């Protein structure tokens, strides 16, 4: 009966074991997983736009090939994650409609424009770097399909972060103009990268429940701190200054103190009023509408195949 099912679910979570799609799960557990995994998938797909902007403008064939590979990876990450969400009984059509209507979110970071080529490196270094901090723990999330999707995604994120850092290192060894372009890009992306980890723990409605269910294994602030501590030495090696005068090593905490994030900006961008929100969603809607005939044709073909087999 339900009490036994609940007890088994709780025991599985307590043993840090995996919940699989066929297992009984509380409806709220299923719903919060659909919420988080779908929004993660939306982030990957929308994230193709800012970088895609530079594929036709890359300065060399090598840089173009690397960027093309990365953007294609992001599409693949979106597909793995939508597949993990479908195991919870939702359809991709439904999720895409929720993204386009604004009923579901995607990561705020992708609502900022990519104004210079250095942004391609900065996104790899900072945005994919932040994503790694946030996604490595998710490899051990309690829902099986999500954790397994994360293992493949994290391997590819490491390539994304490395290629971005190498791109910036190359520019820093170039001209003064290139060094200035890198610094200007870092100035624009540093604070929005910190916002990727979500609101502070004391303003996070989902964290407590997600931690109790083993969906999250660390809180937003813990992972944000880990990202700052990892990135400061990388910035020093690169020779760029992170745009936070309060950033300083705290010997007692064995961690870096850093300035206050502009949470008004965060909630404004999350709420749809960032620099590129309208453009990003309109572009996604256009792609979805333009692809309708492909989906219809594939579905019709699949039906013909099925009827050929069953006749
Ligand atoms: N952008 C947009 N919305 C955000 C956000 C952000 N940076 N941070 C938080 N939010 C939303 C949450 O979704 C939640 O709204 P909802 O209840 O309607 O979903 C609300 O703000 C409150 O935040 P919480 O902290 O309570 O929500 P969570 O417990 O879900 O924590 C999270 C937010 C840390 C982003 C968590 O959902 C998570 O770890 N998600 C999986 C990782 C992910 O989505 N990463 C996106 C990064 S982009 C990426 O990975 C692509 C890579 O290739 C660069």
UniProtKB/TrEMBL annotation:
GO terms for molecular function: phenylacetyl-CoA 1,2-epoxidase activity. One of its GO terms (biological process) is phenylacetate catabolic process. Pfam families: PaaA_PaaC. InterPro entries: Aromatic_CoA_ox/epox, Ferritin-like, Ferritin-like_SF, PaaA, PaaA_PaaC. It comes from Myceligenerans xiligouense. SUPFAM superfamilies: Ferritin-like. GO terms for cellular component: cytosol. This is Ring-1,2-phenylacetyl-CoA epoxidase subunit PaaA. Signal peptide: none annotated.
């Amino acid at each position: 009966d339900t009490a036994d099912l609940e007890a088994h679910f709780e025991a599985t979570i307590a043993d840090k074991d995996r919940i699989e799609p066929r297992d009984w799960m509380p409806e709220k557990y299923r719903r919060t997983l659909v919420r988080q995994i779908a929004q993660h998938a939306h982030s990957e797909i929308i994230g193709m736009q800012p970088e895609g902007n530079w594929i036709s403008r890359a300065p060399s064939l090598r840089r173009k090939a690397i960027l093309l590979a990365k953007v294609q990876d992001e599409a693949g990450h979106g597909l793995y994650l939508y597949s993990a969400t479908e195991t919870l009984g939702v359809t991709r059509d439904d999720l895409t409609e929720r993204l386009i209507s604004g009923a579901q979110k995607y990561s705020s970071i992708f609502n900022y424009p990519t104004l210079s080529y250095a942004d391609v490196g900065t996104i790899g270094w900072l945005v994919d770097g932040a994503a790694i901090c946030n996604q490595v723990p998710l490899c051990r999330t309690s829902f099986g399909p999500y954790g397994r999707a994360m293992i493949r995604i994290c391997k590819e994120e490491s390539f994304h972060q490395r290629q971005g850092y190498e791109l910036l290192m190359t520019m820093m060894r170039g001209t003064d103009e290139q060094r200035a372009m890198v610094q200007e890009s870092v100035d624009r992306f540093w604070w929005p990268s910190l916002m990727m980890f979500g609101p502070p723990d004391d303003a996070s409605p989902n964290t407590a429940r997600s931690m109790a269910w083993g969906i999250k294994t660390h809180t937003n602030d813990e992972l944000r701190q880990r990202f700052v501590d990892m990135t400061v030495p990388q910035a020093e090696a690169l020779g760029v200054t992170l745009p936070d005068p309060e950033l300083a090593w705290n010997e007692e905490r064995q961690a870096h103190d850093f300035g206050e994030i502009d949470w008004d900006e965060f909630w404004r961008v999350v709420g749809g009023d960032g620099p590129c929100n309208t453009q990003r969603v309109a572009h996604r809607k256009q792609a979805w509408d333009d692809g309708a005939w492909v989906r219809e044709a594939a579905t019709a073909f699949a039906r013909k195949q099925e009827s050929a087999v069953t006749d």
